[in-house]
Amino acid sequence: MTKTMLILLAVIFSVHIASAQVGAMKLVGKNTKNYKLGFGAFIKTALPVNEAGSITIEGGVNIFMLNDPDGFGSGTIMCPLKAGYRYTFNQTGEGLYIEPQTGFNVYGITSMHDENGNPVDLKYHGVVLAVGTGYLFTLWRQPFDLNLRYETVIAHGGSNNLVALGISRFISFKKRYSD
């Protein structure tokens, strides 16, 4: 439980201090019906490589709590680090896009209680695969991203799968130039 609280505080700190983006997500698949709606914080940046596409780098923390009658502390936390390529269909760097990503779950932990009520922490890491689509637009001269993503973390012969819906302001290190 102490580790969960520390990670939760780190997420709140990163959102506030680093201007990180936040998202809502749902674990899907086998044995996920007892999980509440998850939340997370991430920092994502894009480096345009041409008018239509950008290389993206993203790091974050995703937290999913169980519907635990015993109180706070049971759930799953994942810390993925991903890279991808975002392609805009109208080839302007804004508008509708698709973005495949791959990476690694740097740290993952599932905390639960065994049949005797004792806390059990299962640690894992593994390959992350994701695909997303969304719409990039500018509002008040700031770039925003409305997106939908499916992501899976493959570890120890199993996987954690999630669907995320978000709106975020992304960070770009290079401007696009059009004639």
Percent of residues in beta strands? Answer: over 45%
Computed Rg: 17 Å
Mean pLDDT: 82
Sheet with most strands: 8 strands, antiparallel, barrel
Per CATH, the architecture is: Beta Barrel
Number of helices: 1
Spatial separation of the terminal alpha carbons: 56 Å
CATH topology description? Porin
Tell how many strands the DSSP assignment holds: 9
Count of structural domains? 1
- Structural class, by secondary structure, is mainly beta
Apparent shape: elongated
CATH class: Mainly Beta
SSE sequence, one letter per element? HEEEEEEEEE
Low-confidence stretches: none
Strand order of the main beta sheet, please? 1-2-3-4-5-6-7-8
Helicity range? under 10%
Give a written overview of the molecule:
This protein is mostly beta strands and 179 residues long. It has a single domain (2-172), classed as Beta Barrel (Porin). Helix content is 9%, strand content 64%.
